[in-house]
Design brief:
This protein is mainly beta. It has helices at 8-21, 176-186, 340-347, 415-420, 442-445, 546-551; strands at residues 30-44, 47-54, 63-66, 70-77, 85-88, 114-120, 126-132, 142-148, 162-171, 195-198, 215-218, 223-230, 236-241, 246-251, 254-261, 264-266, 271-277, 287-295, 309-316, 368-379, 398-403, 406-408, 451-452, 454-456, 459-462, 466-474, 480-484, 489-496, 515-516, 518-521, 525-533, 537-543, 554-559. It contains 6 helices and 33 strands. The strands form 7 sheets. Strands 20, 21, 23, 26, 28, 29 and 31 form a 7-stranded mixed β-sheet that branches. The protein has a 6-stranded mixed β-sheet with strand order 10-9-12-17-14-15, with no helix packed on it. Strands 11-19-18-13-16 form a 5-stranded mixed β-sheet. Mean pLDDT is 92; it is low at 4-14, 19-25 and 442-447.
């Protein structure tokens, strides 16, 4: 299994072809950015610490482009640790080399090194984002990608008066690397963050935060496009604005039918385009809270979690009398922290736009059916860990996670290189199961607590053009945001309880399901997705709760080359980082 090794000259020729593919006659351009990874001091919650940033900014710089553009980003690692960058939701046609996940499509960029990513925009239009894809670095290394319509075209809704990126995140007072190291050493769960944030700020309900609370200045009668991103590591979030309703018009850089709601629920990894109409009641307050609250399905009495609400302020500035005379109003419509019904009610209303300019192409014939169990498990404590002995782990073990009872183990070299050079033997196994497999060690589990799993670097190999249906079946006590690199997929169904192969497919929406790259799988429920494997390469699939990525809730799809040049991977760039 693999593809032929090609000389560097062919990569240069491929670059010419790539440049020609971005057709200037259609208004597409090549855009250039430089990202410098640096350590920068920031203060939040009365606490100063050094964090990794891009260009000294937290959140990082926004990339602006148009549909079909080529974005070239030269990443210089001036930090103190290895790092990679992922362009979340960008399909990267034929180009897994620039996708970014550590030890999946590349070796990390070492301190003092650099790597130039070629970010190929194709069908995406709307809001995406970029973030680090190594350890827990994306806690502070992230930013928005704004993809405008091609020149000569426009939004499928009235052009907004202003566009505002709104990045939801989390803040830890402790060094995020220490947070990860502690969890791995002690075998327990990751310490919860100390605050949720909106554009890097927790808001004026937190200590030492009032003066830096993010503010949005609006004027009566104007419409604002909020480009909302959940960049958090561990939290689904409810989001609402006091005194205003929101109109959903896009998810994961694909347009939706307009949906007017009181709140949204956005999972880590997801992006949502939302219209805010500035229509306050005359004589009412001039300030309104924009709020983001944790949504959690775990047992509150046994699992530590961040139950905070981040706030920003929407302020009317179009009148001399608009100066605030009383505190901002709080969004009473914001659901409670464990309101699963509110979350499900929102996500089940989403529909693709499905007009002539943005058609829907749901595959009706499926070639490969996969049922994937999602679970939280345990693994034996590391025998070399003689000091702490997993004292915070369950039953004397350490937390793990799995897909179909396989806990993914990252290899020492990246999967893409091994595949490309036909040297996958000993690096990965091509037998990721299509259905759950049983593995229970009764001497460890004793009938209670998380089940033992096993580690492995198992991948799923697909022929080019295969239509795949994946049904994610959650066995755990929490939602899971499942993200697929290299593709968008149609979310054709979801439900509570155990998936019934004979009954539930009849409930699928095959007319206008939402087209996403990250789907929130409900606790103890299921979600079904479909996609056509027409992007050759190596593509990561994983939960977007980062502790679950580290624990092994991951796998890899390898899509083989097709027969035409447009259906084959680009050759390997000569400047890939070395392991």
């Amino acid at each position: 299994m693999g593809t032929a090794k090609l000389p560097a000259l062919l990569w240069l020729l491929a670059g010419v072809v790539l440049a020609l593919a971005v057709n200037p006659a259609h208004g597409a351009k090549t855009r250039h950015y430089d990202f410098f990874i640096t350590e920068t001091n920031y203060t939040r919650l009365c606490h100063e610490k050094s964090i990794l940033t891009v260009n000294g900014q937290f959140p990082g710089p926004t990339i602006y482009a148009r549909k079909g553009d080529l974005v070239i980003v030269n990443v210089h690692n001036d930090g103190n640790k290895n790092i990679t960058i992922h362009w979340h939701g960008v399909d990267q046609p034929q180009n897994p080399w620039s996708d970014g996940p550590e030890f999946i499509t590349q070796c990390p960029i070492r301190p003092g090194g650099n790597f130039t990513y070629q970010v190929i925009l194709s069908e995406e239009e709307g809001t995406l984002w970029w973030h680090a894809h190594s350890d827990f670095d994306r806690a502070t290394v992230h930013g928005a990608i704004v993809i405008h319509p091609k020149r000569g075209t426009t939004f499928p809704f009235k052009k907004p008066d202003k566009e505002i990126p709104v990045i939801l995140g989390e803040w830890w007072n402790d060094d995020i690397e220490h947070v990860l190291d502690k969890a791995q050493l002690l075998g327990g769960d990751v310490d919860p963050s100390n605050a949720n944030t909106i554009n890097g700020q927790p808001g004026d309900m937190f200590p030492c935060s009032r003066d830096d609370t993010f503010k949005v200045a609006v004027q009566q009668g104007n419409t604002y496009l909020l480009r909302i991103i959940n960049a958090g590591l561990t939290n689904d979030m409810f989001f609402a604005i006091a005194g205003h309703r929101l109109t959903m018009v896009g998810i994961d850089a694909r347009y939706t039918k307009p949906l007017t709601v009181d709140y949204i629920m956005i999972a880590p990894g997801q992006t949502m385009d939302v219209l805010l109409e500035a229509k306050r009641t005359l004589g009412s307050n001039s300030q309104y809270y924009m709020a983001a609250r944790t949504f959690i399905t775990l047992p509150l009495d046994t699992i530590p979690f961040n139950n905070s609400t981040a706030t920003a302020i929407v302020e009317y500035t179009d009148s001399a009398t608009a100066r605030p005379v009383r505190p901002p109003e709080f969004p009473v419509q914001l659901p409670a922290i464990k309101d699963e019904n509110a979350a499900m009610a929102f996500v089940t209303q989403l529909r693709s736009l499905g007009n002539q300019e943005h058609p829907v192409h749901v595959p009706t014939h499926v070639d490969e059916h996969m049922l994937i169990d999602i679970d939280i498990n345990v693994l034996p404590c590391d025998p070399t860990n003689m000091v702490e002995k997993c004292k915070e782990g369950p039953q004397g073990n350490r937390f793990a996670a799995s897909l179909n009872n396989v806990s993914f183990q990252s290899p020492a070299i990246d999967v893409l290189d091994a595949y490309y050079y036909n040297s996958g033997h000993g690096v990965y196994e091509e037998d990721f199961p299509n259905k759950p497999t049983a593995f229970v060690d009764p001497t460890v589990n004793n009938g209670s607590g998380p089940l033992m799993t096993k580690r492995g670097t198992k991948v799923k190999v697909l022929e080019y053009g295969t239509v795949v249906e994946v049904v994610f079946h959650d066995l755990s006590s929490e939602n899971h945001p499942m993200h697929l690199h290299g593709f968008a997929f149609y979310v054709v169904g979801r439900g509570n309880g155990t998936f019934d192969e004979s009954r539930d497919p009849a409930t699928y929406n095959l007319v206008d399901p939402p087209f996403q790259n990250t789907v929130s799988v409900p606790r103890s429920g299921w979600a079904a997705i479909r996609f056509r494997a027409d992007n050759p390469g190596v593509w990561f699939m994983h939960c977007h709760f980062d502790r679950h990525v580290v624990w092994g809730m991951d796998t890899v799809f390898i899509v083989k080359d097709g027969k035409t040049p447009q259906a084959q991977m680009l050759p390997r760039p000569p400047n890939m980082p070395q392991c």
